[in-house]
Amino acid sequence: MTEAEAEDGAERRLHERYDTELSVDYSNGDTFLFAYITNISEMGIFIRSEDPAPIGTRLSLRFADGSGEPLSIGGEVVWVNPLRADGDNLNPGMGIRFEPLALDVRERVVSLVRAIAYLSNDDDAS
Length: 126
What we know:
alpha+beta
């Protein structure tokens, strides 16, 4: 990693992210919301939201992986891209890191990410 990459954070992620559009239900206690996952990795997701939860908020997430049984995963908001009044931010939302996953759930997440990556590569080749 070059010094410039270290300074701008370009190499801070350990797992590659893939663009997607998956619906997700999420809650933190009494608040239940519906949104879209706009990218995913093996360790977390980005949820598009004009009203993201604060950093440190723990969420219960439910989204489909194509198996017929929704994935139910815990996660924590680790960064926020707030909606700006001047309209300068076209991608408001929150980065969610998955809490430690049971082996069977982790395998389902990895399979979903691989499927999205495969489809993404197919789109790039077209």
